[in-house]
Amino acid sequence: MLNRKAILLAIISFLLAACGQQSTQSGSPETGEKLFHQVTIEAAPGCITCHSTEPNKVIVGPSLAGIASRASERVPGQTAEEYLTNCILDPNAYVVDGFPTGVMYQKYKDVLTDEQVRDLIAYLSTLK
What we know:
Shape: globular
CATH class: Mainly Alpha
Oligomer: single chain
Structural class: mainly alpha
Distance between the termini: 58 Å
Number of strands: 2
């Protein structure tokens, strides 16, 4: 009888722990690409307004060609996903050398949904 209770308690604990875990849903690269190439997103400038995906082509901000290969190396201790998320939602946290602070639109955190951010990161992760 004690074994049954212990097993039942272990199963319940496992199920409760699983329910409490956050989803690690990936975004859609296709949706992110469409979003990236919009001239505006709501009232905000679209990514393509300031960033090229062609190597060495600077519009206002740095080219994002190859960003998937560089993102995990930009800020020590940050994964590529964390770096890209921070660049979008807190653009002054890290500014690429040679570019001024405060130029990137500062309020994407108020404009973009979590899903849109995941989609953008999924797309940017394809730019190797």
